[in-house]
Write a structure and sequence with these properties.
- By secondary structure, the protein is mainly alpha-helical.
- The protein contains eleven helices and three strands.
- The chain has a three-stranded antiparallel sheet.
């Protein structure tokens, strides 16, 4: 089996990634959240949830309003069920920080507006209250495929080549930008639920193909410090 692994090692899907700023500038060009259609607001929220805390689309689809807690500096979710690579039964948390610099890019502002607009869809007596709902009746909770399609639609409208990059690429784009902008590697691993830095450097840490918390770092539009993923990987693991 070791010989098979060496002869056909797992390879990263992408050799480069897209620039998060492209999507942020697209959002900044749109009207305020309250003036967006529910369809566009839903897609915008799905994308902001994906880049402000780089979770899998399956985890975004599982977000439940009954497990949402509004706190002074943001919104926290307790993720029901088990995640893809989870080996324990502890409830995972997802935190989205306020981004007061620009309400158009604030995931909390977008989320609260979305909750207000979808209030009539929700049954307060139901034990399950999926955060994201389908746009057409009966407004059930969305599936992971729907979240993926919404994210790809936003990427396409922003000018990103969706024939090359799929919805899962948000994890690489967001974590790479955060790391380039100075987010500690431990914070990157925690936000993306990776146990080892090698996973990030080998499969996700990529240069953009276009030119203090995790969410705020990702949502800042501007130039990023340059880096060479391969060199960083060698520096960190040369003694192993």
């Amino acid at each position: 089996m070791k010989g098979i692994l060496r002869g056909n090692p797992p390879l990263p899907r992408y050799q480069e990634t897209w620039d998060v700023d492209v999507v942020l500038k697209y959002f900044d060009s749109l009207p305020n959240n309250k003036d967006l259609s529910l369809k566009l607001l839903s897609k915008k929220l799905a994308m902001l949830l994906a880049i402000a805390a780089p979770k899998r689309v399956s985890e975004i689809a599982r977000l439940d309003k009954n497990f949402m807690q509004i706190i002074p500096n943001g919104i926290k979710f307790y993720l029901p069920g088990l995640s893809k690579t989870q080996k324990d039964c502890k409830s995972r948390e997802i935190f989205y920080a306020n981004y007061q610099q620009n309400p158009k890019l604030c995931v909390v502002d977008c989320l609260l507006e979305y909750c207000e607009r979808t209030k009539s869809f929700r049954d307060s007596d139901n034990s399950n209250d999926p955060l994201l709902r389908t746009i057409i009746k009966p407004h059930k909770g969305v599936t992971a495929n729907t979240v993926s399609n919404w994210i790809k639609d936003v990427m396409s409208h922003a000018g990103i080549d969706t024939t090359r990059f799929k919805a899962h690429s948000t994890r690489s784009a967001a974590t790479s930008k955060a790391f380039r902008n100075g987010t500690p590697i431990d914070d990157v691993l925690m936000m993306a639920d990776w146990s080892h830095a090698g996973t990030f450097f080998r499969f996700y840490c990529r240069s953009a193909n276009e030119s203090s918390g995790f969410s705020k770092t990702v949502l800042d539009i501007g130039q990023c410090m340059s880096f060479e993923p391969a060199m960083l990987y060698l520096m960190m693991f040369s003694e192993i």
